[in-house]
Specification:
It holds the Pfam family FGGY_C. This protein is of the alpha+beta class and 496 residues long. The protein has a domain of 240 residues: 2-Layer Sandwich (Nucleotidyltransferase, domain 5), CATH 3.30.420. It is built from 17 helices and 23 strands. Strand 10 and strand 11 form a beta hairpin. The N and C termini lie far apart (55 Å). It binds adenosine-5'-diphosphate and SN-glycerol-3-phosphate. The site of SN-glycerol-3-phosphate has 11 residues, from helix 10.
Length: 496
């Protein structure tokens, strides 16, 4: 049986998923790995643990399904984006833990770069807002804080990579140092129009060019796995950052098509075609996946806390025992009775970008119960998404006809219905919810000839359930206006 093996290297776990030619899932294996929080606001990963967990699940999914490397036509990689790693080219050893996308250690540095007047240059070239979220200031931190790192980097001894690059390096035993263009577009060092590393930005951030990987299309033959890993070499057919991969996996290949992933955070991406138009509403412009050399772009609204608020109800407040339970609890009341929960626990991302906002629970009375709070938590996710959708409509001038959804919290019917109600747009959940891994499988399957073209892949995507807006428009408007007031109260709460 021929399959495509998708490696889905996420923030909290490594997964390996086998896809058959009809797009169905043959098997899944998953391992969590440790999160390191050395200081408040800092988040790190051990890149060797990432590699070991990824290798183990890859071998395990084959074994569990009685398959071998010979049954894998190609491998596709999808990964947590922006997480930054530097390693020694000779030994392959990381010089430090990877600095994770959520890490805020370079926020002060970003404030300075913004204050020095570089925001327009950075947005024009990279499509990004200056924020600690992206790689550039994380790389500089590593070069300036790991003893000897800057000298070694200047001598060409070190390599930088996002997690796709790290996996390519390990899978080929150091023969390939490359990244795909969607991951490269999150470094804040790429000119997204030419898709080349930009010398002016490298100088601004003090980063030697010799550190950087080669930038390749997402759907591209990068090499093959070292024979020592799986017995027989397997073709490496492509890679994509997880959110762009999900956009491709949702088959949003035409301008105006949008998806939203409800995981730890929420990431809404909309295909905007072949021009990297800058956003006027503080969204990001990012490189999207495409099936060949053709460039495609997307607007992205990144929301830092979404499903994580449900984990907080479970672990922080203890009012539910599992994430799934939130739906029944929230459904036990008809509405939140005026309670609003702004989940700005890690500041606010798009379109507000307020690092100093904090979580706010407001509107409670003596009648408020845990059910109202659970409901307000789910509604807070949907209101944030509505704010991003508005910004997208405004920037693109496109009337979004449907929002395709995926991610763990997209299983929550109450949340999906409320989402449709509050945005007044139908919400469509596909049958194959593993769209992130599917996107990686597709880019690898296309470059290696497993699938013939986009048309063949488009047939795989099928609707599971459609949520139509039911709430009267005036009521949705009233609730959004109240949300906007609650949001204002959460802003600029802490000073650093
Ligand atoms: N039924 C549910 N209702 C609401 N949230 C849920 C539900 N099931 C899972 N979640 C949330 O979804 C998140 C996990 O989704 P997942 O897509 O695996 O995230 P990630 O890739 O960011 O780790 C968790 O934050 C969890 O609380
Ligand atoms: O690993 P996830 O699914 O939380 O995704 C992380 C994003 O890529 C961060 O930009």
């Amino acid at each position: 049986m021929k399959t495509i093996l998708a490696l889905d290297q996420g923030t909290t776990s490594s997964r390996a998923i086998l896809f058959a030619h009809d797009g169905s899932i043959v098997g899944v294996s998953q391992r969590e790995f440790e999160q390191y929080y050395p200081q408040p606001g800092w988040v790190e990963h051990d890149a060797n643990e990432i590699w070991q967990s990824q290798l183990e699940v890859s071998r395990e999914v084959l074994q569990q399904n009685n398959l071998s490397a010979a049954d894998v036509h190609a491998i596709g990689i999808t990964n947590q984006r922006e997480t930054t790693l530097v390693w020694d080219r000779k030994t392959g050893e990381p010089i430090h833990h990877a600095i994770v996308w959520q890490d805020r250690r370079t926020a002060g540095e970003c404030d300075k770069i913004r204050e020095a007047g570089h925001a327009d240059l950075v947005q024009r070239k990279t499509g990004l807002v200056i924020d600690a979220y992206f790689c550039a200031t994380k790389i500089r931190w590593l070069l300036d804080n790991v003893p000897g790192a800057r000298e070694r980097a200047e001598a060409g001894e070190l390599a930088f990579g996002t997690i796709d690059s790290w996996l390519f390096w390990k899978l080929t035993n150091g023969r390939v140092h490359a990244t795909d263009v969607t991951n490269a577009s999150r470094t804040m060092l790429l000119d997204i129009a030419s898709c080349q590393w930009d010398d002016e930005l490298l100088e601004l951030f003090g980063i030697p060019k010799s550190l950087l990987p080669e930038v390749c299309p997402s759907s591209h033959l990068y090499g093959e796995t070292d024979p020592s890993l799986f017995g027989t070499p397997i073709a490496l057919g492509g890679a994509a950052g997880d959110q762009q991969s999900a956009l491709f996996g949702q088959n949003c290949t035409q301008p105006g098509m949008a998806k939203n992933t409800y995981g730890t955070g929420c990431f809404m991406l909309m295909n905007i075609g072949d021009e990297p138009a800058p956003s006027k509403s503080r969204l990001l412009t990012t490189v999207a996946c495409s099936s060949g050399d053709k460039r495609e772009y997307a607007y992205e609204g990144s929301i830092f806390i979404a499903g994580a608020i449900v984990q907080w109800l479970r672990d922080g407040l203890g009012i539910i025992n599992s994430s799934e339970e939130v739906e029944a609890l929230a459904a036990s009341v008809p509405d939140s009775e005026g309670v609003y929960l702004v989940p700005a626990f890690a500041g606010l991302g798009a379109p507000h970008w307020d690092s100093y906002a904090r979580g706010t629970l407001i509107g409670m009375t003596r009648g408020t119960t845990k059910a109202h709070i659970a409901r307000a938590a789910l509604e807070g996710i949907a209101f944030q998404v509505a704010d991003v959708l508005d910004a997208m409509k405004k920037d693109s001038g496109v009337c979004i006809e449907e929002l395709r959804v995926d991610g763990g919290a997209a299983a929550n019917d109450l949340l999906m219905q409320f989402q449709a109600d509050i945005i007044g747009v139908k919400v469509v959940r596909p049958k194959i919810i593993e769209t992130t891994a599917a996107g990686a499988a597709y880019v690898a399957g296309l470059s290696s000839g497993f699938w013939k073209g986009n048309e063949e892949i488009a047939k795989i995507w099928q609707t599971d359930r459609v949520f139509m807006p039911q709430m009267p428009k005036a009521e949705a408007k009233r609730r959004r206006a109240r949300w906007a007031e609650a949001l204002e109260r959460s802003k600029n709460w802490v000073s650093e």
